[in-house]
Fold this sequence. Notes:
Layout: H1 2-18, H2 39-42, H3 46-55, H4 79-82, H5 91-99, H6 101-110, H7 121-142, H8 166-183, H9 200-220, H10 245-262, H11 271-274, H12 278-282, E1 303-307, H13 320-323, H14 330-335, H15 365-370, E2 443-447, H16 448-462, H17 469-473, H18 476-482, H19 490-493, H20 501-512, H21 519-525, H22 529-532, E3 537-541, E4 590-594, H23 612-617
Antiparallel strand pairs: 1-2, 3-4
Helix pairs in contact: 3-6, 3-7, 5-7, 6-7, 7-8, 8-9, 9-10, 9-16, 9-21, 10-16, 16-20
Amino acid sequence: MKTININIKRIGIVAALSAFTLTGCSEYLDQEPQDTVTEAVYFETAEQFEFAANNCYTAMGFDYGDDSSDLSGNIGDTYGAGETVTPTSDDIWDDNYTRLRYPNQLIEKAVDYPGEQSEIAASVATAYFFRAWHHTILLKRFGGVPIVTRSLDVVSEELYAPRNSRYEVLAQIFSDLDVAIADLPSQNGLSASDKGKITLEAAKSFKAKMLLYAATWDKYVGTATDGDGTSVGAGSTKPADYPSVDAMLQEAKALALEVMNSGAYQLWDHREELGNRNLYYLFNLEDGGSNPAGLSKADNNEYIIQTTYDFTLRQIRQNLTHAKGLTPNRKLMDMFLCEDGLPVQHSAVFEGYQEMTSEYQNRDYRLTSLTRTPLVQYWGWGSNVDGGGAQYEAGFENSGIDYDYRYVPNLIDPGAGRNIGYSGVKFTTEYKLRETREESYNYPYLRYAEVLLTYAEATVELGGGTISDADLDMSINKLRERANVAPLSNALIAPYSDLNMLGEIRRERAIELFGENHRFDDLKRWGIAEEELGHAITLNYVDGTEYETAEDPKNPGSLIYKPSGFSYGTTSSEYAVSTYSGIATTKPGSLILDIAGNRNFSLNNYVDPIPSDQIRLNPELLQNPGW
C-alpha cells in the first residue's frame, strides 16, 4: 500500500506539529505557537493531549449529499445511476487511512503519560471516537477494510494485510465507541468554550446510529456484498461475540432513549418568530444577521456532531448558495405530508397540482421551509445577487433595490444547470454580508432529529412492523409537530391499506434528513437501493396545469415552460416510484428529467471498488464482487 506509506512518511515528520497547529474555528481549536516541539517530547502535558485530540476535528468538513439519489432533481453526479469504473485512486481511502494515524498515536502515547490518566481521559476518549469515525467512513464506502489500530511505519504488517470483514470492522467500531462513552464528558457539563466537542451523548448517538445501520444491513442485505474472502471481497467472518440483529436493535433503541432522556439536546423550533421557514434558518444559522429573529449559533441545541465554521477563521468555501444543490424531484415533493398527517394520495386537504402554487398549500413545513414556492418573494444574498441579501427591517418593498424578488421556476432547459423545476434552499443563505463561497454556518453530521428517528425505526423493527402511539409521541411526532403536521398514530393510517408504520417511519427519515448524506446509506441498508434508484427522475406536473401556459412575470412575453427543452417529454402513464408502501405514484404529465434506462444502480454498487493502485501495491486486498 504505497500510497499509505507515502502518507505515513509525511505524517511521521509533521505529526507532532499538526497535532497542535489547528485550523479550527472556535476557542477549543485556537492555534498556539510551537516552534521547536518534536513528537518525542510533545505528549508530556494534559494540554498537549487536548491539542492533539482537537486536531482530530480538522478531518470534518461540509459533506452534504443526495445528489443523483431517488429524491433529487440534480442528476449531474453519476453515483445514483450506478458507476461502473474502478478508480485508480480514491480520496476516501487515502484520507481516512492518513487520518487514522492521529487518534492511534494519541492512544499509544497515553500509555506513557507521566501524570494521572484521569487528566487525559477525555482526550483519549475523543481519539477512540475518531478512530471509530474513520473506520465507519471506510466501512460504508468499501465494506470490509483493513483495521488499523496503531500508528504505522513503512514496514508495518497492516500495510500488506488482507481486508477484515465488515463484521470485524463493525466490532472494532463498537468497541472503540464503548471506550469513548466511558470517558467523554456530558454535553450538560460543557463550558461555553467547549461547545461543539464530542461528548458522551454524541458517542451514544453515533453508536445507536451504527447499531441500527449494522442491524438493518444484516436483516435486509446480509452477506450478499461480502464475497468469499478467498478469491473476491472481504468475506463474512464474524467475531465470536458479534451481536445478533435483535441485540443491536435493542441497544440502538436504549442508547437513543438515554440521549432523549438526558436533556442535552432539543429540537430547533422557532416557529413563533420564523413561521413556516423555521427550518430554513436552522441550516444557514450564523450570527443575528442571518435570520429575521436575530438568532445565533448559540441558540442551536439540535446539532450533536457538527463541523464548526466561522466567517473569520474558517469559511466553507464551497459556493453552496449559488449552486443550490438540494433540489427535490417529483417523488420527494409527493412524500412530504399534508397538515392532516396524511400523504398527498389520501389527504383531504391536498389541493392538487392545477395551479403552480397548489401543491404547496396545507403542506409540511419541511417542504415550505426548504423549497421555494412559485411567485413568492425571497431574498438573494450578498450585496447584489438576486437583488441582494436580506433587509429584514425594511422588507422587500422598501429595500431600495429595483429588483423583482419573486421566485419563478426554471422549466426552460435541463442543461441550464441546477434547480430545474423546483428550487431547494437547504444550506443556502440570504445573508447580506455573505458573498459567493463565504457561507459559514455549521454542518450537522448527526443532529437530535436523527436520534428520534433512530429510536422510532429500531422500535418498529423490533416490533415486527408495529409501534405504539406512546413511542411515536416521544420520537417522530416531535418532528411532525415542528413541521406543522398532525401526529402519526395507528388509528390515522389504519383506513389505508398502502400505509404501514415501517413505511411511514422511513418516509419521515427521508424528508427530515434529505441532503444530509443519509439517503444512499439508508437505501442500501434496507436492501432496496437498486429498485428505488432505478426509476425515472421526474419534476413538476406540466401537462394540463398552469405551467403549460403561464407567462414569466419577470420576462413578459416569455413562457415559464418550454417543452422543446426537454427531450424526454412528460410521463404518459401512472407508475409506482417506490418498493415500500405509502409513496404516491407518479401520474401522466410529469416532466421527465432522466429516464429509467439511464439509471443502473445494482447490488455491486452497495460497496465501492477498492482503488486499483492499492490492490497493485498490496495484492492481499481482494476486489469487491462485481468490480
